[in-house]
Amino acid sequence: DVQMTQSPSSLSVSVGDSVTITCRASQDIYTYVNWYQQRPGKAPKLLVFAASRLQDGVPPRFGGSGSQTHFTLTINNLQPEDSATYYCHQYYGAPDTFGQGTRLE
Amino acid sequence: QVTLKESGPVLVKPTATLTLTCSISGFSLNTDSAGVSWLRQPPGKGLEWLAHIFSNDDKSYSPSLRTRLTISKDTSKSQVVLKMINVAPEDTATYYCARVAERVTSYGVRRGNWFDPWGQGTQVTVSA
User: Fold this and answer.
1) Which of A31, A40, A47 is nearest to A87 (CA)?
2) pLDDT digits 0-9 by tens, B43-76
3) How far apart are CA A62 and CA A18, in angstroms?
4) Which residues 52-91 of chain A have a CB within 8 Å of chain B?
5) Residue B43: burial class (beta carbons within 10 Å; 0-12, 13-18, 19+)
6) Between chains, do A55 and B60 touch, taking CB under 8 Å as contact?
């Protein structure tokens, strides 16, 4: 299985801050990475697909980048509604696997 | 508007068979190059993919759960069903279904891409 190591596991931030969340894959997965946001008590929501493509309706202060084994999700100008857990997901190797999650407080 | 909604029992006894249903609307189960996946999330933990069923009825399963899972669809009812046999307390989780975008690899194997959207989830507890 492709292991996705996500860091940090949690982060305390303030409104207006910028943050970068990182996922490292255990092998080259090209750009087969997605990012999801999960607010407390809610289902995950797709933010970024194929490493850098922003899903429709997602504010442009979210951005994804990376390739091969190193991927990042950046959130600029943090807003209160961004308080959530963020997961990376690889879909190159079978089975699909997720990072452990990053909780933004 | 694409929506998915999970349904099933809240409480299941150990060794029983769990049957979950995903009711979909806004897309077709046998066209649109989209399938349906099941995923789960134990309390306070991360996400785990369980199974895909694709528009052409191809299926794939998590290797660690393959022997216990069966995914199927009823296009006339717009439903996807996941059955898990011989459940145990460690199967306690919120179970989600999600639409999955499809691709065909260079080997001719159908694979899933991203999950969007997700259902609201259904909580299942396995306990005697």
Assistant:
1) A47
2) 999 999 999 999 999 999 999 999 999 999 999 9
3) 10
4) 55, 87, 89, 91
5) exposed
6) no
